[in-house]
Design brief:
alpha/beta; about 425 residues; four-stranded mixed beta sheet; Adenylosuccinate Synthetase, Chain A, domain 1; about 20% strand; Adenylosuccinate Synthetase, subunit A, domain 2; Adenylosuccinate Synthetase, Chain A, domain 3; about 30% helix
């Protein structure tokens, strides 16, 4: 195996960080290909918590090259704060082990102001993080985005910002009545930040092309989850990027190659942060217990995550939408010891029973059909898995027709069992 993608199979927050961290130890490159600093990967190393937003998880391994590819939207100030914080924790970061695409899209102050204004004053609440992600992708598609390479030429930067502000200025003044920096102020801010970032900047497309030609082991690290994909997700309550497998081909570029293994990170139950329909959501004390026990609060925003039973029709859809070849089942320890355990195996939807979601399905009309499962009480202290837990895993595998290749039962690196070989990590 030379290429592997790690993709969230639900609404994000599935525990991708630790899995990426462990697998990146066996890789030459780890590539972030979409999203921005609205994502957060939390990794616990020897009891020490490290939260990454833009920098790929491979940065924790000195031999590994971390790449922020052109499909990412990039907030320079947030990156600088993250860079300083990670380096202060004792991790060495240089232009040799961190490479940033010169062609990625910059999140400007105008993007963040517009994002916050829309969320606070708009009639529809999407539940965005307010970090300017959506407006930055709008600029990209509208062909008015500021690219990272523009930060290195002050005159070009001012021209790009002038065009970028354009329609936004009318919205700021007459629709939302919010203040905003002048073009000169924003240009000066970004230009100074650009000086600090420039040592890491390069043509990442060619870097990855060469790596593929040389037979390097490459891991593609996704942010958010498939159900937040701009095309495949539960629109409009989605993010603004391609979080599915397709985002790798457009956001990183893998010429003359394909992704051999697509690992879907899957929480053993379902969570969702922000707005949007959620068929298996629990509104009772059990939902609160799972939320509390699982510490279900966002790494980036601190917002509470809504909790519910594992939704297999949505998970089957994710398998098909991103060609998942196996899944990693995380946070099993949170379900251990519960008085009851259920899993959603189908929906009653518009007079029919369906066992797989699809793009555009109205989940507000989906009534979950739940199956009772025997509760398990595993302690995960080296003993064999209980028959009840094995039954839970088998139920998932048979429904999805792909294996559960990894199970995880805590935040530490050691709290994981590989049931399938990945990059030479031997199953046990």
């Amino acid at each position: 195996m030379k290429t592997l993608a790690i993709i969230g199979s639900q609404w994000g927050d599935e525990g991708k960080g630790k899995i990426t961290d462990l697998l990146s130890e066996k890789c030459d490159y780890v590539v972030r290909y979409q999203g921005g600093n609205n994502a957060g990967h939390t990794i616990i190393v020897d009891g020490k918590k490290i939260v990454l937003h833009l920098i790929p998880s491979g940065i924790l391994h000195p031999h590994c090259v971390s790449v922020i590819a052109h499909g990412v939207v990039f907030e320079p100030e947030a990156f600088q704060h993250e860079l300083n914080r990670v380096m202060d924790s004792g991790i060495t970061i240089t232009s040799e082990n961190l490479k940033i695409s010169e062609n990625l899209t910059i999140i400007t102050s105008y993007n963040k102001i517009l994002d916050a204004a829309r969320e606070n004053q708009g009639s529809v609440k999407i539940g965005t993080t307010g970090k300017g992600i959506g407006p930055a992708y709008e600029d990209k598609i509208g062909r008015r985005a500021v690219k990272l390479k523009d930060l290195f030429d002050y005159d070009i930067l001012k021209k790009k910002l002038s065009r970028n502000l354009g329609e936004k200025e009318i919205l700021f003044k007459h629709r939302y009545a919010v203040s905003f920096p002048t073009i000169e102020e924003e240009a000066e801010r970004l230009f100074e930040l650009g000086k600090k970032i420039k040592p890491f900047v390069c043509d990442t497309f060619s870097v990855l092309d060469k790596a593929i030609q040389n037979g390097s082991k490459i891991l593609y690290e996704g942010a958010q989850g498939i159900l937040l994909d701009i095309d495949y997700g539960t629109y409009p309550y989605v993010t603004s990027s391609s979080t599915s497998l397709g985002g790798i081909y457009t956001g990183a570029g893998i010429p003359e190659s394909h992704v051999e293994e697509v690992l879907g990170i899957t929480k053993a139950y379902t969570t969702r942060v922000g707005e949007g329909p959620f068929p298996t959501e629990l509104f009772n004390e059990l939902g609160v217990e799972i939320q509390t026990k699982g510490n279900e609060f966002g790494a980036t925003t601190g917002r509470k995550r809504r909790c519910g039973w594992l939704d297999l029709p949505l998970l089957k859809y994710s398998v098909k939408a991103s060609n998942l070849t196996s899944i990693a089942l995380t946070k099993l320890d949170i379900l251990s010891g519960l008085k009851e355990l259920k899993v959603c195996v189908a929906y009653e939807y518009e007079g029919q029973r369906i066992d797989c979601a699809y793009p555009g399905i109205d989940l507000t009309k989906a009534k979950p059909i739940l199956k009772n499962m025997p509760a398990f009480n595993d302690l995960f202290q080296g003993e064999p898995l209980s028959s009840e837990l094995e039954d839970y895993i088998k139920e998932i595998e048979l429904f999805l027709n792909i294996p559960v290749g990894i199970i995880a039962f805590g935040p530490e690196r050691k709290e994981i069992i590989f049931r399938k070989d990945y990059f030479g990590i031997i199953k046990r």
